[in-house]
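To: structure subgroup
Subject: Chain for Friday's discussion

All,

I'm putting the inputs and outputs inline so they're searchable in the archive.
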Amino acid sequence: MTRPRSSYYPLEVAMCDVVQRCLDGGARQVDLAVEFAGARSWIRVAADVSCLRVAAPYDDEEESPIAAPAGPAGLDVVSACLWHGAAVSVAGEDASGERHVVRWERRGHTAIGRTLGAGGPPGAQPDDLSRDLGRAVVLLDDLDEVLAYKRREGRVIETAITRMRGRIGDALGLAFHRLLGEAPRRRAPIAVSINAKPVEPRDPFAGGAGSHRLHRRELPFVVEGRVETVVATPHVLDAVDDDPVADRQGFFAYLRDRLVQAGGWSRLTVEDRSDAIARIAVDVPPSALDSFVWEPAPRRLLFPAALAPAMRAVAFEAVSAAGR
């Protein structure tokens, strides 16, 4: 397997995936720390999760390729971390309260797992290392971004870690802005912190005073004999100085209230307008996700053929309104 460049799956996206897995496991509070320690700088994620699935990033082999990001739902915890670090350790409690620590190390394009301390004999087979853990802590070390430097100490690495911390915080605020905000839509609010500072929501639809929302559309389409519905809500926005996506236009796709695509017209040949900003919030039904095509490098969803004409019409409506 050829491992793509880190731009194919940025570190900040991987950390969003780890946070998402914590939320899937019932967490309402997730605390991250990105700390400078020279060549051993690290990232820690701690969550009040009730059940975090920690599984081998392969099928049934003792050593197998690390999973690649194949869809907007993202990767499992182990695979997401091993894309950006040589080792990841996960600690937590099982249903009986027993403490487990499992460590995975990257060897080329494969992952090797072993237990540390309680929770199974050292060197256990990979299938034996899968765990459902509560009160979990994930520690990612031997970071690729740090190891890429020839000299891995001093102010240069400290500055790199500071920038990394800022990128991760910005990405979390954008990806989970609906759940971090004052009025979450369909789920209970969450709290995320990074180095003990709350992550603030970065809403791409918070435009200037002249911004407004157009009519919300419910667009049905057929998938394998059943009817699914995409909800599309166009917005026309005035530019603001603190726009979290730098005036980007297009579709902003959400999967379970997480922003997975931030702009772009998903190959529907729609032109941006220079005199206003047209953005469309698109809520993708998880049950129909397999009918969409995901392009990982640009982080872009392509709509099913049965849905594309309706999405194009909504896009033209938003762009036309933005041009008035």
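Points worth raising on Friday:
The chain has a mean pLDDT of 87.
Residues 212-322 form one domain.

D.
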